[in-house]
Amino acid sequence: MKITAAVLRHMGAAQPYAQSRPLKLETLDLATPGRGEVLVRIAAAGLCHSDFSVINGDRPRPLPMALGHEAAGIVEALGEGVTGLGVGDHVVLVFMPSCGACDYCRAGRPALCEPGAAANGAGTLLGGSMRLSGAGGPVHHHLGCSAFATHAVVSECSLVRVDQDLPLDEAALFGCAVLTGVGAAVNTAAIQPGQSVAVIGLGGVGLAALLGARAAGAARLVAVDLSPDKLALAAELGATDCLNARDADALAAFIKTTGGVDVALEMAGAIPALELAFNLTRRGGTTVTAGLPPPAAALPLPIARLVAEERTLKGSYIGGCVPRRDVPRFIAWYRAGRLPVDRLLSARLRPDELNAGFDRLAAGAAVRQIVHF
Protein backbone atom coordinates (compact mmCIF):
# COMPACT_ATOMS: atom_id res chain seq x y z
CA MET A 1 0.00 0.00 0.00
CA LYS A 2 1.02 3.62 -0.45
CA ILE A 3 1.60 5.66 2.70
CA THR A 4 2.96 9.06 3.64
CA ALA A 5 5.94 9.11 6.02
CA ALA A 6 8.54 11.59 7.27
CA VAL A 7 11.88 10.36 5.90
CA LEU A 8 15.40 11.38 6.92
CA ARG A 9 17.98 10.91 4.14
CA HIS A 10 20.87 12.98 5.55
CA MET A 11 21.95 13.61 9.16
CA GLY A 12 23.47 16.80 10.51
CA ALA A 13 21.39 19.38 8.65
CA ALA A 14 21.87 22.99 9.70
CA GLN A 15 19.34 24.57 12.00
CA PRO A 16 16.75 25.95 11.92
CA TYR A 17 15.15 22.80 10.53
CA ALA A 18 12.15 24.80 9.40
CA GLN A 19 14.48 26.10 6.67
CA SER A 20 16.82 23.15 6.00
CA ARG A 21 13.93 20.63 6.25
CA PRO A 22 15.81 17.41 7.04
CA LEU A 23 12.53 15.53 7.36
CA LYS A 24 10.62 15.28 4.10
CA LEU A 25 7.14 13.89 3.67
CA GLU A 26 7.42 11.16 1.06
CA THR A 27 5.09 8.63 -0.51
CA LEU A 28 6.44 5.18 0.37
CA ASP A 29 5.44 1.62 -0.38
CA LEU A 30 4.53 -0.35 2.74
CA ALA A 31 4.52 -4.11 2.34
CA THR A 32 1.88 -6.28 3.97
CA PRO A 33 2.75 -7.55 7.46
CA GLY A 34 4.79 -10.74 7.59
CA ARG A 35 4.68 -13.43 10.21
CA GLY A 36 4.36 -11.95 13.70
CA GLU A 37 3.79 -8.45 12.30
CA VAL A 38 0.86 -6.04 12.43
CA LEU A 39 -0.35 -3.17 10.24
CA VAL A 40 -1.25 -0.12 12.35
CA ARG A 41 -2.92 3.10 11.26
CA ILE A 42 -1.01 5.77 13.18
CA ALA A 43 -3.25 8.25 14.95
CA ALA A 44 -0.74 10.29 16.96
CA ALA A 45 3.04 10.36 17.40
CA GLY A 46 5.19 12.36 19.81
CA LEU A 47 8.37 14.30 19.01
CA CYS A 48 11.17 13.00 21.24
CA HIS A 49 14.85 13.74 21.77
CA SER A 50 15.62 10.24 20.45
CA ASP A 51 14.29 11.37 17.06
CA PHE A 52 16.20 14.64 17.30
CA SER A 53 19.48 12.86 18.08
CA VAL A 54 19.18 10.95 14.80
CA ILE A 55 18.38 14.09 12.84
CA ASN A 56 21.39 16.00 14.23
CA GLY A 57 23.72 12.99 13.97
CA ASP A 58 24.41 12.49 17.69
CA ARG A 59 23.15 8.91 17.47
CA PRO A 60 23.81 7.70 13.92
CA ARG A 61 21.36 5.30 12.32
CA PRO A 62 21.30 3.68 8.87
CA LEU A 63 19.71 5.91 6.27
CA PRO A 64 17.32 6.55 4.68
CA MET A 65 15.05 6.09 7.68
CA ALA A 66 11.41 6.86 8.42
CA LEU A 67 11.49 8.42 11.89
CA GLY A 68 9.11 8.39 14.84
CA HIS A 69 8.83 5.94 17.72
CA GLU A 70 6.41 7.27 20.37
CA ALA A 71 2.94 6.63 19.01
CA ALA A 72 -0.49 5.09 19.23
CA GLY A 73 -2.86 3.85 16.57
CA ILE A 74 -5.44 1.31 15.44
CA VAL A 75 -4.78 -2.21 14.16
CA GLU A 76 -5.85 -2.67 10.54
CA ALA A 77 -4.37 -6.05 9.55
CA LEU A 78 -2.59 -9.01 11.12
CA GLY A 79 0.27 -11.09 9.78
CA GLU A 80 0.44 -14.84 10.11
CA GLY A 81 0.81 -16.10 13.66
CA VAL A 82 -0.45 -12.98 15.43
CA THR A 83 -2.83 -14.11 18.14
CA GLY A 84 -2.73 -11.46 20.84
CA LEU A 85 -4.33 -8.63 18.85
CA GLY A 86 -7.36 -8.11 16.65
CA VAL A 87 -8.37 -5.73 13.87
CA GLY A 88 -9.75 -2.56 15.43
CA ASP A 89 -7.70 -2.80 18.62
CA HIS A 90 -6.16 0.42 19.89
CA VAL A 91 -2.45 0.02 20.56
CA VAL A 92 0.57 1.86 21.94
CA LEU A 93 3.84 1.38 20.04
CA VAL A 94 6.89 0.50 22.15
CA PHE A 95 10.34 1.40 20.79
CA MET A 96 12.17 -1.63 22.18
CA PRO A 97 10.81 -4.92 20.81
CA SER A 98 11.46 -7.96 22.96
CA CYS A 99 11.84 -11.44 21.55
CA GLY A 100 10.68 -13.22 24.71
CA ALA A 101 13.30 -15.94 24.27
CA CYS A 102 16.76 -14.49 24.99
CA ASP A 103 18.33 -14.66 28.45
CA TYR A 104 17.28 -11.10 29.32
CA CYS A 105 13.68 -11.54 28.23
CA ARG A 106 13.40 -14.79 30.16
CA ALA A 107 14.81 -12.99 33.21
CA GLY A 108 12.03 -10.39 33.01
CA ARG A 109 14.25 -7.62 31.60
CA PRO A 110 12.89 -7.06 28.07
CA ALA A 111 14.55 -3.62 27.86
CA LEU A 112 17.83 -5.51 27.44
CA CYS A 113 16.59 -7.86 24.71
CA GLU A 114 19.59 -8.64 22.52
CA PRO A 115 17.71 -9.40 19.26
CA GLY A 116 15.63 -6.27 19.83
CA ALA A 117 18.72 -4.10 20.30
CA ALA A 118 20.34 -5.61 17.19
CA ALA A 119 17.23 -4.98 15.09
CA ASN A 120 16.94 -1.37 16.30
CA GLY A 121 20.59 -0.74 15.48
CA ALA A 122 20.17 -2.20 12.00
CA GLY A 123 16.98 -0.26 11.29
CA THR A 124 14.85 -3.37 10.79
CA LEU A 125 11.86 -4.97 12.46
CA LEU A 126 12.49 -7.61 15.12
CA GLY A 127 12.67 -10.46 12.63
CA GLY A 128 15.17 -8.61 10.42
CA SER A 129 12.67 -7.58 7.75
CA MET A 130 12.21 -4.16 6.16
CA ARG A 131 8.69 -3.35 4.97
CA LEU A 132 9.28 0.20 3.71
CA SER A 133 10.63 1.26 0.34
CA GLY A 134 10.73 4.44 -1.68
CA ALA A 135 12.70 6.24 -4.34
CA GLY A 136 16.06 4.48 -4.55
CA GLY A 137 15.17 1.36 -2.60
CA PRO A 138 14.49 0.21 0.98
CA VAL A 139 13.82 2.67 3.82
CA HIS A 140 14.89 1.73 7.35
CA HIS A 141 12.58 1.51 10.35
CA HIS A 142 13.24 3.77 13.34
CA LEU A 143 13.33 1.69 16.54
CA GLY A 144 10.94 -0.80 14.99
CA CYS A 145 8.19 1.81 14.68
CA SER A 146 8.64 4.53 12.00
CA ALA A 147 5.61 6.25 13.40
CA PHE A 148 5.76 9.65 11.69
CA ALA A 149 3.54 8.14 9.04
CA THR A 150 -0.03 7.38 8.13
CA HIS A 151 0.59 3.65 8.67
CA ALA A 152 3.32 1.37 10.01
CA VAL A 153 4.05 -2.34 9.97
CA VAL A 154 5.57 -3.36 13.31
CA SER A 155 6.31 -6.52 15.22
CA GLU A 156 3.52 -7.72 17.48
CA CYS A 157 6.17 -7.53 20.22
CA SER A 158 6.26 -3.75 19.76
CA LEU A 159 2.57 -3.27 20.57
CA VAL A 160 0.50 -3.05 23.74
CA ARG A 161 -3.29 -3.01 23.51
CA VAL A 162 -5.07 -0.20 25.39
CA ASP A 163 -8.68 0.66 26.13
CA GLN A 164 -10.49 2.28 23.23
CA ASP A 165 -11.87 5.14 25.33
CA LEU A 166 -8.35 6.46 26.02
CA PRO A 167 -7.62 9.35 23.59
CA LEU A 168 -4.91 8.20 21.23
CA ASP A 169 -2.87 11.41 21.48
CA GLU A 170 -2.63 10.78 25.24
CA ALA A 171 -2.02 7.06 24.73
CA ALA A 172 1.00 7.85 22.53
CA LEU A 173 2.87 9.34 25.49
CA PHE A 174 2.86 6.00 27.28
CA GLY A 175 5.08 4.42 24.61
CA CYS A 176 8.19 6.45 25.46
CA ALA A 177 7.95 9.48 27.76
CA VAL A 178 5.88 7.76 30.43
CA LEU A 179 7.57 4.35 30.23
CA THR A 180 11.03 5.92 30.37
CA GLY A 181 10.38 8.63 32.96
CA VAL A 182 7.89 7.02 35.31
CA GLY A 183 9.68 3.69 34.96
CA ALA A 184 13.02 5.23 35.95
CA ALA A 185 11.39 6.55 39.11
CA VAL A 186 9.38 3.52 40.21
CA ASN A 187 11.32 0.61 38.68
CA THR A 188 14.99 1.59 38.37
CA ALA A 189 15.24 3.94 41.35
CA ALA A 190 12.46 2.17 43.29
CA ILE A 191 11.64 5.44 45.08
CA GLN A 192 10.14 4.88 48.51
CA PRO A 193 7.56 7.04 50.32
CA GLY A 194 9.21 9.86 52.22
CA GLN A 195 12.39 9.99 50.15
CA SER A 196 13.80 13.19 48.66
CA VAL A 197 14.17 13.19 44.87
CA ALA A 198 15.70 15.53 42.28
CA VAL A 199 14.89 15.45 38.57
CA ILE A 200 17.44 17.11 36.29
CA GLY A 201 16.11 17.93 32.81
CA LEU A 202 12.41 18.68 32.43
CA GLY A 203 11.51 17.57 28.94
CA GLY A 204 8.71 15.09 28.41
CA VAL A 205 10.69 12.25 29.99
CA GLY A 206 11.92 14.36 32.89
CA LEU A 207 8.49 15.69 33.77
CA ALA A 208 7.11 12.16 33.52
CA ALA A 209 9.83 11.11 35.98
CA LEU A 210 8.77 13.92 38.29
CA LEU A 211 5.17 12.65 38.12
CA GLY A 212 6.40 9.13 38.79
CA ALA A 213 8.41 10.25 41.82
CA ARG A 214 5.39 12.07 43.18
CA ALA A 215 3.18 9.01 42.61
CA ALA A 216 5.77 6.89 44.44
CA GLY A 217 5.45 9.14 47.51
CA ALA A 218 8.51 11.39 47.35
CA ALA A 219 8.33 13.87 50.22
CA ARG A 220 10.67 16.50 48.74
CA LEU A 221 10.72 16.82 44.99
CA VAL A 222 13.40 19.03 43.44
CA ALA A 223 13.10 20.12 39.79
CA VAL A 224 16.21 21.37 37.95
CA ASP A 225 16.26 22.83 34.44
CA LEU A 226 17.45 25.82 32.40
CA SER A 227 13.93 26.90 31.39
CA PRO A 228 11.87 29.08 33.76
CA ASP A 229 8.70 27.97 31.96
CA LYS A 230 9.46 24.28 32.56
CA LEU A 231 10.34 24.98 36.18
CA ALA A 232 6.99 26.74 36.57
CA LEU A 233 5.20 23.73 35.10
CA ALA A 234 7.14 21.43 37.42
CA ALA A 235 5.91 23.48 40.38
CA GLU A 236 2.34 23.04 39.17
CA LEU A 237 2.93 19.29 38.90
CA GLY A 238 4.13 18.96 42.48
CA ALA A 239 7.79 20.01 42.70
CA THR A 240 8.58 21.42 46.13
CA ASP A 241 11.83 23.12 45.03
CA CYS A 242 12.64 24.54 41.59
CA LEU A 243 16.28 25.34 40.79
CA ASN A 244 17.67 26.89 37.64
CA ALA A 245 20.70 24.87 36.53
CA ARG A 246 22.50 28.12 35.65
CA ASP A 247 22.30 29.32 39.26
CA ALA A 248 25.40 27.67 40.74
CA ASP A 249 25.00 29.53 44.03
CA ALA A 250 21.46 28.24 44.55
CA LEU A 251 22.53 24.68 43.73
CA ALA A 252 25.50 24.87 46.10
CA ALA A 253 23.31 26.33 48.84
CA PHE A 254 20.76 23.54 48.41
CA ILE A 255 23.44 20.86 48.73
CA LYS A 256 25.03 22.57 51.74
CA THR A 257 21.70 23.01 53.50
CA THR A 258 20.19 19.58 52.79
CA GLY A 259 23.18 17.32 52.15
CA GLY A 260 21.55 16.42 48.83
CA VAL A 261 18.73 14.08 47.91
CA ASP A 262 18.16 10.36 48.32
CA VAL A 263 17.60 9.88 44.59
CA ALA A 264 18.63 12.04 41.62
CA LEU A 265 17.17 11.29 38.18
CA GLU A 266 19.12 12.69 35.19
CA MET A 267 16.93 13.06 32.10
CA ALA A 268 18.78 15.65 30.00
CA GLY A 269 21.19 13.39 28.14
CA ALA A 270 24.18 15.65 28.81
CA ILE A 271 27.34 15.00 30.82
CA PRO A 272 27.10 18.27 32.85
CA ALA A 273 23.56 17.26 33.85
CA LEU A 274 24.75 13.83 35.00
CA GLU A 275 27.61 15.41 36.97
CA LEU A 276 25.08 17.72 38.62
CA ALA A 277 22.81 14.77 39.41
CA PHE A 278 25.72 12.93 41.04
CA ASN A 279 26.64 15.99 43.10
CA LEU A 280 23.02 16.45 44.18
CA THR A 281 22.89 12.89 45.49
CA ARG A 282 23.64 12.51 49.19
CA ARG A 283 25.88 9.92 50.81
CA GLY A 284 24.36 6.47 50.42
CA GLY A 285 22.01 7.72 47.73
CA THR A 286 21.21 6.64 44.19
CA THR A 287 21.82 8.49 40.91
CA VAL A 288 19.84 7.23 37.92
CA THR A 289 20.41 8.33 34.33
CA ALA A 290 17.98 7.76 31.50
CA GLY A 291 19.44 10.43 29.21
CA LEU A 292 21.20 9.30 26.05
CA PRO A 293 24.17 11.54 25.15
CA PRO A 294 26.27 10.86 22.02
CA PRO A 295 27.84 7.37 22.15
CA ALA A 296 31.37 8.67 22.77
CA ALA A 297 30.39 10.82 25.77
CA ALA A 298 32.13 9.76 29.00
CA LEU A 299 31.67 10.68 32.66
CA PRO A 300 34.73 11.57 34.78
CA LEU A 301 33.52 9.69 37.84
CA PRO A 302 35.04 10.32 41.32
CA ILE A 303 35.52 6.67 42.24
CA ALA A 304 36.61 7.42 45.82
CA ARG A 305 33.25 9.11 46.52
CA LEU A 306 31.39 6.27 44.87
CA VAL A 307 33.06 3.80 47.24
CA ALA A 308 33.54 5.77 50.47
CA GLU A 309 30.04 7.26 50.35
CA GLU A 310 28.38 3.99 49.28
CA ARG A 311 26.65 5.57 46.32
CA THR A 312 24.80 3.82 43.52
CA LEU A 313 24.93 4.95 39.88
CA LYS A 314 22.43 3.22 37.61
CA GLY A 315 21.38 3.39 33.99
CA SER A 316 17.74 3.06 33.02
CA TYR A 317 16.47 2.10 29.55
CA ILE A 318 12.72 2.27 28.94
CA GLY A 319 12.52 2.76 32.68
CA GLY A 320 13.36 -0.88 33.26
CA CYS A 321 9.78 -1.57 32.23
CA VAL A 322 7.98 -4.67 31.11
CA PRO A 323 5.71 -2.82 28.65
CA ARG A 324 2.76 -5.21 28.74
CA ARG A 325 2.77 -4.95 32.53
CA ASP A 326 3.66 -1.30 32.94
CA VAL A 327 1.71 0.45 30.16
CA PRO A 328 -1.64 -0.75 31.62
CA ARG A 329 -0.39 -0.03 35.15
CA PHE A 330 0.63 3.54 34.35
CA ILE A 331 -2.60 4.15 32.40
CA ALA A 332 -4.53 3.00 35.48
CA TRP A 333 -2.55 5.50 37.56
CA TYR A 334 -3.38 8.21 35.01
CA ARG A 335 -7.09 7.40 35.17
CA ALA A 336 -6.94 7.51 38.96
CA GLY A 337 -5.37 10.98 38.88
CA ARG A 338 -1.93 9.86 40.10
CA LEU A 339 -0.15 10.59 36.78
CA PRO A 340 -1.60 13.66 35.01
CA VAL A 341 0.46 13.00 31.87
CA ASP A 342 -1.99 14.96 29.72
CA ARG A 343 -0.33 18.06 31.23
CA LEU A 344 2.78 17.17 29.21
CA LEU A 345 1.05 17.83 25.88
CA SER A 346 2.28 21.22 24.73
CA ALA A 347 1.23 21.31 21.04
CA ARG A 348 -0.54 19.35 18.33
CA LEU A 349 1.10 19.55 14.91
CA ARG A 350 0.33 18.85 11.29
CA PRO A 351 2.81 16.60 9.46
CA ASP A 352 4.21 19.57 7.55
CA GLU A 353 5.11 21.21 10.88
CA LEU A 354 7.47 18.42 12.01
CA ASN A 355 10.70 20.25 11.18
CA ALA A 356 9.62 23.40 13.01
CA GLY A 357 8.54 21.19 15.91
CA PHE A 358 12.07 19.83 16.23
CA ASP A 359 13.39 23.40 16.28
CA ARG A 360 11.18 24.03 19.32
CA LEU A 361 12.34 20.78 20.93
CA ALA A 362 16.00 21.70 20.37
CA ALA A 363 15.42 25.14 21.91
CA GLY A 364 13.75 23.63 24.98
CA ALA A 365 10.56 25.48 24.09
CA ALA A 366 8.25 22.46 24.17
CA VAL A 367 7.53 19.51 26.45
CA ARG A 368 5.70 16.97 24.25
CA GLN A 369 4.42 17.88 20.80
CA ILE A 370 2.11 15.43 19.06
CA VAL A 371 1.79 15.13 15.31
CA HIS A 372 -1.46 13.85 13.80
CA PHE A 373 -1.43 12.10 10.42
What does the model show?
Strands 3, 5, 6, 9, 10, 17 and 18 form a 7-stranded mixed sheet that branches. Strands 13-12-11-14-15-16 form a 6-stranded parallel sheet, with helices on both faces. It is globular. It has 373 residues and is α/β, with parallel strands linked by helices. It folds into 2 domains: 206 residues, Alpha-Beta Complex (Quinone Oxidoreductase, Chain A, domain 1); 137 residues, NAD(P)-binding Rossmann-like Domain (Rossmann fold, 3-Layer(aba) Sandwich). The mean pLDDT is 96. The chain has 13 helices and 18 strands.
- Would you give the CATH topology of the largest domain? Quinone Oxidoreductase, Chain A, domain 1
- Give the integer mean of the pLDDT values: 96
Radius of gyration: 20 Å
- Largest sheet descriptor: 7 strands, mixed
CATH architecture of the largest domain: Alpha-Beta Complex
What top-tier CATH class of the largest domain fits best? Alpha Beta
Percent helix among the residues?
A: 25-40%
The tally of beta strands, per DSSP, is: 18
Shape: globular
How far apart, in Å, are the first and last alpha carbons?
Answer: 16 Å
Note poorly predicted spans: none
Q: Given the structure, what is the number of helices? A: 13
